């Protein structure tokens, strides 16, 4: 049994680097051979699918003895010139399944893309709001600290000491900012001229 490190290095070299270089050479030829280009495209589709499935199934099959070596053998089988297993696996396994379920797969990808976009927007909005709140809290803290050291900002009313107010809540700030922008655009606010 090969060491785990050596197996991983061989998988990277013989499963990704060598096929990637062969694919590059195919693309960069003056006259691209369509069949060879199709072969390498099929190879990368199979490898991508295998990588995705492996990420989920690794818990169940990753512990099997000689798993890394079998994976290496599969990659070599797929591109080796005498076996060219890519054509067999693509034509007999992947293409029939994908052609039967193409519309379902397409719908799922559209749904996942929409959900991912909605989730990204949701987190972006929450992160910016949290960032604004954190910034105002820091400014409040700094303002409170500066008023402790300067007596000029203190106003007393009887025996009660009043400090400058803290930052207003976020919705009020937004409303104020948007009102000021609208006034500036309409020409109503001319105090800066």
From TrEMBL:
Its main location: membrane. InterPro entries: TB2_DP1_HVA22. It is found in: Membrane. Transmembrane segments: none annotated. GO terms for cellular component: membrane. It is a multi-pass membrane protein. PANTHER family: HVA22-LIKE PROTEIN J, HVA22-LIKE PROTEINS. Belongs to the DP1 family. This is HVA22-like protein. It comes from Crotalaria pallida. The lineage of its organism: Eukaryota, Viridiplantae, Streptophyta, Embryophyta, Tracheophyta.
């Amino acid at each position: 049994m090969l060491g785990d490190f050596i197996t991983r290095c061989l998988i990277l070299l013989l499963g990704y680097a060598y096929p990637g270089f062969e694919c590059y050479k195919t693309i960069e030829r003056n006259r691209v051979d369509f069949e060879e280009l199709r072969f390498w495209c099929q190879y990368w589709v199979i490898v991508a699918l295998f990588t995705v499935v492996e990420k989920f199934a690794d818990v169940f099959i990753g512990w099997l003895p000689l798993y890394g070596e079998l994976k290496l053998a599969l990659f070599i089988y797929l591109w080796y010139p005498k076996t060219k297993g890519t054509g067999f696996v693509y034509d007999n396994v992947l293409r029939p399944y994908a052609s039967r379920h193409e519309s379902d797969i397409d719908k799922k990808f559209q749904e996942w893309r929409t959900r991912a976009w909605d989730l990204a927007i949701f987190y972006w909005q929450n992160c910016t709001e949290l960032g604004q709140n954190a910034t105002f809290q820091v400014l409040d803290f700094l303002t409170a600290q500066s008023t402790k050291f300067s007596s000029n900002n203190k106003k007393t009313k009887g025996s009660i000491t009043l400090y400058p107010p803290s930052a207003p809540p976020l919705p009020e700030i937004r409303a104020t900012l948007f009102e000021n922008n609208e006034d500036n655009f309409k020409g109503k606010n001319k105090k800066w001229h």
